[in-house]
C-alpha cells in the first residue's frame, strides 16, 4: 500500500478535515472502495464504474471529500466531491 495522499482543504474551511476515498483495482480484477482511514476495503465491485459511483455516493454525504481513482495503469485521477458549503 502506498503512502497516504495529502490533499489540502480550500474554500470556506481551510483548516477542516478532508476525507479521501480511494478506488483501486486488485490482482483478481475487482475494484475496491477504500476510505483512507480504514485498513480494509469498504466494498468491492466488478467494474471501475460501479466502484467509482459507490465512492462518489459515499463522498457526497461528507462535507469535504475527494475520491482518488487509481486505474490499472498506475494513473491517478482526483474527483472533488462532498456537500458544498454555502
Gyration radius over CA: 13 Å
Largest sheet descriptor = 5 strands, mixed
Task: State the end-to-end CA separation.
Answer: 36 Å
In one word, what is the shape? globular
- Helix-strand sequence: EEEHEE
Q: Provide mean pLDDT, rounded.
A: 81
Summarize the amount of helix as a percent range: 10-25%
Strands, helices and their partners?
Blueprint: E1 19-25, E2 31-35, E3 43-45, H1 48-59, E4 65-70, E5 76-81
Parallel strand pairs: 1-4
Antiparallel strand pairs: 1-2, 2-3, 4-5
Folded structure, characterized:
- By secondary structure, the protein is α+β, with helices and mostly antiparallel strands.
- It has a domain at 19-77.
- Helix content is 14%, strand content 31%.
- The chain has one helix at 48-59, and strands at 19-25, 31-35, 43-45, 65-70, 76-81.
- A 5-stranded mixed sheet has the order 3-2-1-4-5, with helices on one face.
- The protein starts with 18 loop residues before the first strand and ends in a 5-residue tail after the last strand.
- 20% of the residues are buried.
- The mean pLDDT is 81.
